[in-house]
Amino acid sequence: MRENRAVDVVLSQRALNRATLARQLLLERAGLTPLETIAHLVGMQAQVPHNPYTALWSRLDGFRPESLSELLERREAVRIGVMRGTIHLVTAADCLLLRPLMQPVLEAQLRRHGEHAPSLRGVHLEPIVELARTVLAEKPRSGTELRAIFAERFPDLNAAALTHACQIRLAFVQVPPRRLWSRSTQVRSTTAESWLGRPFVADP
Length: 204
Hints:
single chain, alpha+beta, five-stranded antiparallel β-sheet, 50% helix
């Protein structure tokens, strides 16, 4: 009787390269929807706003740029800082799951931030965060608008640093029409929970 034994298989560099490209849907165009693709990739780099459109066109059969704009307008996908400090495009479901999971990483980045961390040492952030939550629930705001609110309410503190801290603590999403295919505006943000109308996953 033949003995079944585990066999160690070592991928060649080329096999690893092909497997990685296949996982990223970059060997041939796929028949997935844009939303399925964003979920499959667990988010797409979107710091440059038009990059996801090019990335989806490179991967999908018959991709229409308007289809991604529609996902953003229907709030099925969002642009948010989630994996690290840069902006990613993720599904709404992944936003609510991944953002709380990554919160400790983002908090650590905030503490190390070369420009803002010194201005935040010793600052009691809770009332500032609650003010931001309130004004963002009223309507999405630009960074300039938030800084002006903080400068008026907390004149002795660094308004830019407070805005950055709230962006980390409250998980800002950039709302349409930033960046739709056919039009765009300056960045305006609100909280992910307010925009999606659902809370974050409690125990991701």
